[in-house]
């Protein structure tokens, strides 16, 4: 049979094509075998990554402490909840370890996460359809603290697991929150500083993460020879602040009381050591709880970030400039009431409607806070150009350089004659409270102006070595020692003088040098200022004792709700007197006023080895109050260290050898924290204010490291329906 030539041709072509394809595929296999690469991808590395698990070992973020070592911020464990869906996870187990019934699991888990059952169920079902190993539950399934984790685990929900991850915690709630700020976790699991010291020192606090890697099977279980590699993390450095816990707590409590009573628009308070520049306490209202950063009314640290027209507290710098220029005669008379430099410039009027007090001396004008006296000193005695130089030498044209984020500088308005006049008594130009405190340190400190600072030192937590320590820094000397002494006498007359405006700020045991301020508030809907009984910023800048100031304090209250019979100084005076008097006594500063003291500084006695009755008697003799925890006969632990400075009337917690949970209703957060530390309990606080409910009933015995949840409420605030053990 004769062969078809076409058939032979086509067969040859096909064989040739097959041969070419075979050679290409074979060549490709040989290339891959030889190089181990496909499309630029290293197959060895790809396979290695597929069978290797690698996890970040998070560095512990540095702690933040007060000046005595009390912890203000630290990392504590939090958990992320997830559901295992892969049936292979349950191999070699007597019972299922993965989710088998999406609806049942959702019904049990949803209420614990405050989620809808349908939402949890849909997440699980979507994961099952995709044959995912596990699913998570969004924001509400993250940052779960120990109490919530324990409650979920008690339900034994099939397939539900937890992954631990660090979370930032602030044990004292709103305590110094604008100073400490807060940090939160980002989507990558890193904790980043968002505000305050957490933001300012973020790179120092962070540390450096490590990692762990090992070979695993498809179920993420280690192989017998896992080739494990571990790189240890380097923890962040600890930050020690200049803040004094006892003085800061006192300030927070008193400001909280005034907020409740007067509901002002804003409140600001700063306490400073004028000899060093150390900030001893600082607080603002509204404040916030850094554990609840989603509920913040006021982010700004108004003490350093909000310039405003200061009012008459600025007059101390006008008088200081006149004295330093040697143009001041306190006995010289001037005509008070109204002052006009020319026909084109509006008049300066005194605060009593421009009536004045007739011809009075400049010393009396300072006591009465006369605007006319300030304007005449600036315009006629010092001279506007020279006065501007003094404003700059007091650093009112620049930031103070305090080690906190968000500081801004005020603005000196000094273009027109009227602006130059009004600046002399605190109108027109703006300053921040910290700028005023910095400038006033020159008056309190013999003419030397100190830079304010709030970081005491930075410490390596591993070696305990001090990495960096702050030192007091003189940043100028705008006035002489003699001028500062004369100014303190004048400021003292504001508080003690017959015509002084600062009588409400007088202390029982210590002399005070200070100046009041009643600043007008610019209108938001047009030019000019607001009017009305409460529409002012009432302030006071004072130092004590007058002749050798150990503490200096600024307090400002904006638009308090005053009754017609109340004066604007009442809330500020209450804050200043209560905090300053007790702070000086706590610091063991000798009183310089010959008056019987209501409270006094005492030292904590040594109670080691005593019976409860002996301890109570010894505390009573020292002027301290014993709070006994339990029904035992012997003292086992005490909340304060022997020899520690205290104030008479302070409470001391004494743990007996048969401890039980006390009734904490009405306790402050500080008192609850002291008890938890004393009893070694894991405390979780909910809310702010005073204790209203607790997770362990009073009278119940407890073990160390037990969980204690306590709910706090501000006066008048309604209780939640959740129990403390269920509230995060």
UniProtKB/TrEMBL annotation:
Keywords: Membrane, Transmembrane, Transmembrane helix
Domain PASTA residues, every copy: 597-657
Domain of life: Bacteria
Cellular compartments annotated: Membrane
EC numbers, comma separated: 3.4.16.4
TM annotation in the entry: 12-31
Catalytic activity: Preferential cleavage: (Ac)2-L-Lys-D-Ala-|-D-Ala. Also transpeptidation of peptidyl-alanyl moieties that are N-acyl substituents of D-alanine
Pathways per UniProt: Cell wall biogenesis; peptidoglycan biosynthesis
Chief site of localization: membrane
InterPro entries, sorted: Beta-lactam/transpept, Beta-lactam/transpept-like, PASTA_dom, PBP_dimer, PBP_dimer_sf, PCN-bd_Tpept
Family (UniProt): Belongs to the transpeptidase family.
Protein name from the UniProt record: serine-type D-Ala-D-Ala carboxypeptidase
């Amino acid at each position: 049979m004769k062969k078809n030539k076409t058939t032979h041709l086509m067969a040859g072509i096909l064989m040739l094509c097959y041969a070419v394809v075979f050679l290409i595929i074979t060549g490709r296999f040989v290339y891959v075998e030889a190089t181990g690469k496909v499309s630029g991808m290293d197959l060895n590395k790809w396979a290695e990554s597929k069978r290797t698990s690698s996890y970040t070992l998070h560095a512990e973020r540095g702690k933040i402490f007060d000046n005595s070592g009390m912890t203000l911020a630290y990392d504590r464990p939090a958990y992320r909840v997830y559901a295992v869906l892969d049936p292979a996870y349950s191999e070699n187990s007597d019972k299922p370890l993965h989710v088998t019934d999406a609806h049942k699991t959702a019904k049990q888990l949803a209420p614990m996460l405050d989620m809808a059952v349908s939402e949890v169920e849909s997440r699980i079902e979507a994961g099952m359809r995709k044959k995912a190993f596990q699913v998570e539950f969004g924001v509400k399934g993250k940052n779960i603290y120990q109490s919530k984790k324990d409650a979920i685990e008690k339900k034994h929900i099939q397939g539900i697991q937890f992954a631990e991850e660090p979370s930032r915690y602030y044990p004292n709630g709103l305590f110094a929150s604008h100073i400490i700020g807060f940090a939160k976790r980002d989507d990558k699991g890193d904790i980043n500083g968002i505000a305050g010291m957490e933001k300012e020192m973020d790179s120092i606090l962070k540390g450096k993460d490590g990692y762990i890697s090992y070979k695993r099977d498809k179920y993420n279980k280690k192989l017998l020879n896992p080739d494990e590699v571990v790189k240890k993390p380097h923890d962040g450095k600890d930050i020690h602040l200049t803040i004094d816990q006892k003085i800061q707590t006192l300030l927070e409590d008193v400001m909280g009381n005034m907020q409740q009573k007067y509901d002002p628009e804003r409140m600001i308070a700063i306490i400073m050591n004028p000899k060093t520049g150390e900030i001893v306490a600082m607080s603002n209202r509204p404040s916030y709880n850094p554990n609840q950063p989603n509920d913040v009314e006021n982010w700004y640290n108004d003490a350093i970030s909000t310039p405003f027209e200061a009012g008459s507290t600025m007059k101390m710098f006008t008088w200081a400039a006149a004295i330093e220029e040697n143009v001041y005669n306190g006995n010289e008379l001037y005509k008070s009431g109204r002052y006009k430099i020319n026909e084109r410039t509006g008049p300066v009027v005194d605060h009593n409607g421009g009536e004045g007090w007739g011809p009075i001396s400049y010393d009396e004008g300072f006591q009465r806070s006369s605007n006319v006296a300030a304007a005449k000193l600036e315009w006629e005695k010092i001279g506007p150009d020279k006065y501007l130089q003094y404003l700059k030498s007091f650093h009112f044209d620049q930031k103070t350089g305090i080690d906190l984020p968000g500081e801004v500088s005020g603005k000196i308005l000094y273009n027109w004659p009227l602006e130059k006049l009004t600046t002399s008594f605190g109108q027109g130009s703006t300053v921040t409270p910290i700028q005023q405190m910095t400038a006033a340190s020159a008056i309190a400190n013999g003419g030397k102006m100190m830079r304010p600072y709030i970081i005491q030192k930075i410490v390596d937590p591993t070696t305990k070595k001090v990495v960096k320590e702050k030192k007091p820094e003189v940043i100028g000397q705008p006035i002489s020692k003699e001028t500062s002494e004369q100014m303190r006498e004048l400021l003292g007359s504001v508080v003690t003088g017959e015509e002084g405006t600062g009588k409400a700020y007088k202390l029982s045991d210590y002399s005070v040098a200070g100046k009041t301020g009643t600043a007008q508030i610019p209108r938001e809907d047009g030019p000019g200022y607001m009017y009305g009984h409460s529409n002012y910023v009432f302030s006071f800048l004072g130092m004590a004792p007058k002749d050798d100031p150990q503490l200096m304090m600024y307090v400002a209250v904006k638009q308090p709700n005053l009754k017609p019979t109340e004066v604007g100084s009442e809330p500020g005076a209450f804050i200043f007197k209560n905090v300053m008097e007790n702070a000086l006594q706590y610091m063991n500063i000798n009183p310089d006023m010959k008056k019987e003291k209501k409270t006094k500084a005492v030292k904590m006695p040594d109670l080691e080895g005593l019976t409860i009755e002996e301890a109570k008697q010894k505390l009573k003799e020292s002027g301290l109050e014993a709070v006994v925890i339990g029904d035992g006969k012997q003292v086992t632990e005490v909340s304060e260290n022997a020899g520690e400075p205290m104030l008479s009337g302070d409470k001391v917690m004494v743990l007996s050898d048969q401890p039980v949970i006390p009734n904490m209703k009405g306790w402050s957060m500080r008192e609850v924290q002291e008890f938890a530390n004393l009893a070694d309990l894991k405390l979780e606080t909910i809310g702010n204010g005073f204790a209203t409910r607790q997770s362990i009933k009073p009278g119940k015995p407890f073990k160390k490291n037990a969980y204690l949840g306590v709910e706090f409420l501000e006066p008048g605030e309604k209780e939640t329906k959740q129990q403390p053990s269920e509230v995060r």
